[in-house]
Amino acid sequence: MNGLLKGALAAGGGAVGIEVLRRAMFSSARRRYEPWERSPYRDFPNKVLIVGGGFAGYKAAQTLCEFARNRDDVGVMLISRENYFTYWPMLASVIGGDVATQNVAQPLRRTLIRLGASFRRAPLDRVDLARRLVVAGGREFPYEHLVLSLGAEPAYFGIPGVEEHCISITGIGAGEAIVDRVIERYEEVTLAGGEIPDSKLTFMVIGGGATGVEVASELHSLVRDLLVPDYPNINPNRVKIILVDANKEILKELDPALRRVARKKLADLQIEVINNVKAKEVTADRVILGDGREIMVENVIWTAGARASVKLDEIDLPHDERKGLTVDHYMRVLGHDNVWGIGDCAATVNEDGDPVPPNAQAAVQEGEAVARNILAVIDGEEPRPFRYKSLGQLVELGSEFAVNEVMGVKFSGQIAALFWRLTYLYKLESPESRARIAVDWLLDIFYDPPVTQIRR
Ligand SMILES: Cc1cc2nc3c(=O)[nH]c(=O)nc-3n(C[C@H](O)[C@H](O)[C@H](O)COP(=O)(O)OP(=O)(O)OC[C@H]3O[C@@H](n4cnc5c(N)ncnc54)[C@H](O)[C@@H]3O)c2cc1C
Fold it and tell me: Which of the two ends of the chain, N or C, has the fewest CB atoms closer than 10 A to its terminal CB?
């Protein structure tokens, strides 16, 4: 790791270290909480129910609690499938060993209770719009205002074999699933004494957007760096990483100059990029491309498409399968004054009608704006049209390189990687995760992260 990066990390880590030490010495202070119990959710005259505790839903709950802190007429409940929210931008870092999965999980229950909201961990069963209630985990939850923030999931476009044979990013375990696959293959090769087909050591990532590029780069760190001392019998040069993208160029949403830099970096990492072609079929041992090429590969990761939560198909609300709930520029579901759609499960539009991109930045801004609008409606005021402000885009290619565009300024390399780390560290909701990740990054300077396979 370069000196600049080491120095900056050490500085950040030093500050965290002092805090960690202080808390360790005064551990009773660390454990003393002041739980703030409000009246039960059902007792509030204005019940705001949020379903889906990701970037958008969590922000909506946080903002509502903040503004309604001293009011006794607004109750907030959040229902979500898990008791954490997934900090997706750091998921790929799990593959390269830079971040532990448990720190990608941002705890919801404790944080929400401290904010003054109620939390239930339950899957959404159905919405009864006529009776104004949600059924989740078999129980009924009434609402005056309902916010749906169910997020997105992978889209497979009906391509044969994709769902069956690819690893896709369906949840927080995806990073570990990819590491697990690599270890399985390495163990197989070691046992077989090298007598195995190349397809076992070929890894293909389908989808050349930011997620695909980050996953491919982290895979490179894993196979060319982290695993090398563990598998001396495997020649790292035999391992091949291929990135397949249907567009003319990877990272199509990025500035062309940054795209070129990223492309060159991938070439330096010996990641083969195949553009302008779609995967037509995936089988157990090969990928058949649209141009007729067949690539022998037994390890395929799918990052090529997303669609709004399939749960929406079961709710009687206007929506587009891919883009999500049809909402007006106040984020209200068309035809429903008290149902709101935010984040990746809504086709959010700006005041001028332009579509808002489905990303974490937008989801957070929508969460905050919807909270303000709901309170405005409760108070008999006019809600405000949503206006998305893009602050830029950051894409990490391994732990020491990134390509960034921030408020029109484009930069790449190690400084950009440092900026990526500090930005996402700062934006983490949980101070505990922030401290743990910073300490891990600090320790990485001295030790390689262990790569162990925990079988469940
Ligand atoms: C691997 C990856 C990397 C990414 N990196 C970036 C990045 O670097 N920068 C960026 O801006 N964006 C990034 N994104 C996109 C960003 O994470 C999403 O746009 C953002 O998470 C959308 O927020 P959301 O609240 O709509 O959905 P989510 O954050 O996905 O939250 C949805 C929530 O709904 C819950 N839920 C879903 N279904 C149900 C159900 N049936 N019942 C109850 N609860 C349910 C889920 O458990 C989850 O808590 C990335 C996405 C992925 C997958």
Answer: C
